Structures are given as structure tokens and as C-alpha cells.
Amino acid sequence: MEVLEVAPGVYQVTASRVSWQLIVEGDSITVVDAGWPRDYKRVVASLEQIGHSPGSVDAVLLTHAHVDHMGAAEKLRSLHDIPVRAHQEESELALGLRHESITTAKVISQMWRPSVFRFALMSLGRGGASVTPLTAIETFQDGATLDTPGSPIAIHVPGHTSGSTAYHLGDKGVLITGDALVTTHLYTREVGARVMPAEFNHDHELAISSIGRLEDIDATVVLTGHGPPYEGSPKRAVEEATARL
């Protein structure tokens, strides 16, 4: 597990090919995403590494409700009474009432590729075959400024899932994109700004068009759900991602 401070009070945590973010203001923290189902101890360890604990967490924000991003969210919510929040279009996915993720059959059909086989093994090892749905969720709408450390502004970027959301930390010059825009290919691990492979997107064409909503965001660092921090403007990242289509 790597914990990297990318801006004052903003940390990216990376483990098992997925990232979550910690936003610190004083004694309070916003956690963005929560890793794989078996990453609860890692999330707690990442908080401890920066001198905090789950008791410091004001809220968990989801970029989307896939297994590798909301894995530990229900455990954080139930054990520590931490509210979990997501875009209103993501609530049914987070509650387990609807599904918009790649199927096991789809992954199996591609496991002849060594890179897919390695990813599948890692996913299974982190509990990727199942996820504990949330039993309670708080929702928000596009454009909301959330009352939690960092005052993140929610930007709806549907396509990867219906309620996929990016978060702009205006005072920090940071944009968090989840899987709407990533910096590493999930299978090959090739580095560079890109959209997720089509089989991972609920609506691939919408996912491509949605990243245009990020072009005019004022930020100097882009943090994604998969891959290293992108040092540069969202506009440049979107241009690079578009060029890779």
C-alpha cells in the first residue's frame, strides 16, 4: 500500500491496482471510495499512516458503486457510523438493487489473455467476486458542494455507471475522477490518461462523451481510481484520453 500526499491535506492511497483518496481538514477527513471488499484493514491503516483513525472520518464519498471502489464502505458505515454518500443515480447500485458492472462470464471469456488472468486472480484475492451492498446511503445531485472536508463539488460523469461522479477540490487544485478517467489500463497496466475498456463501462459511448465535462475544471492534479496521479490540467488529460480511443 502506498500513501502519497499530492496536495496539502490530499492523499492518494494505492493498493491492489485501485486507489482511494483522503482529504484532511483539521481533525476531520473525507474518504473518497473504499477499495475492494477485503480492503477494510488497508483503509484503516491508510488513515493511521497519516495520524488519524476511522473516528476522524466525516463521510465516505463514492465515485461509483463497483466492487473495487465501495468494497469496504458498508463496514466503515456500520462499524463506525460513517455516512456514505453518492450521486442519486448511483443509489440503487450501491444498495444492491441494480447492477451495472462487468459480468463474471465476460471476464472468464477473456482469461486466455495473461494480463486478464492476472487481474482476475488479484480481484478474487481481494474479494472481487462479491460485495456487501450498503444498507443506507445519502445522495446528492450534480453540482452540489458537499459539506464535508475539502468541500468537494460533485460533477456527474455518467457512462462507466449511471451515477459516476468526479469531485473537484477547488481550493486544492485537485480533481478526483474515479473510473470516468483513469491513468492506467486495468489489464495491461500501461500508464496514460484513458477511459476504461469498453467492457467495464455500462454505456461506453456515454462514458467517452462525459469526460468532456471535465475539460474546463481548474485543477493541476488529477487523481483517478486506477493509476498514478496525473500532473497537468484536466483538459490535457481528456485530450490524451480521447487520442487513445
Q: How many H/I helices?
A: 7
Number of strands: 14
The CATH topology label is Metallo-beta-lactamase, Chain A
Q: What would you call the shape?
A: globular
**Major beta-sheet overview:** 7 strands, mixed
Distance between the termini: 30 Å
Could you state the order of secondary-structure elements as H and E?
EEEEHEHEHHHEEEEEEHEEH
Structural description of this entry:
This protein has helices spanning 40-49, 73-80, 91-94, 104-109, 114-125, 204-210, 234-243, and strands at 2-7, 10-15, 18-25, 28-32, 57-61, 84-87, 138-140, 153-156, 165-169, 174-178, 182-184, 191-194, 221-224, 230-231. It has 245 residues and is of the alpha/beta class. The mean pLDDT is 91.
Question: What layout of secondary structure does this protein have?
Answer:
Layout: E1 2-7, E2 10-15, E3 18-25, E4 28-32, H1 40-49, E5 57-61, H2 73-80, E6 84-87, H3 91-94, H4 104-109, H5 114-125, E7 138-140, E8 153-156, E9 165-169, E10 174-178, E11 182-184, E12 191-194, H6 204-210, E13 221-224, E14 230-231, H7 234-243
Short account of what is shown:
With 245 residues, this protein is of the alpha/beta class. The strands form three sheets. Strands 1-2-3-4-5-6-7 form a seven-stranded mixed sheet. Strands 8-9-10-13-14 form a five-stranded mixed sheet, with no helix packed on it. A hairpin with a 6-residue loop joins strand 11 and strand 12.
Which features would summarize this protein structure in a list?
alpha/beta; 245 residues; Metallo-beta-lactamase, Chain A; five-stranded mixed β-sheet
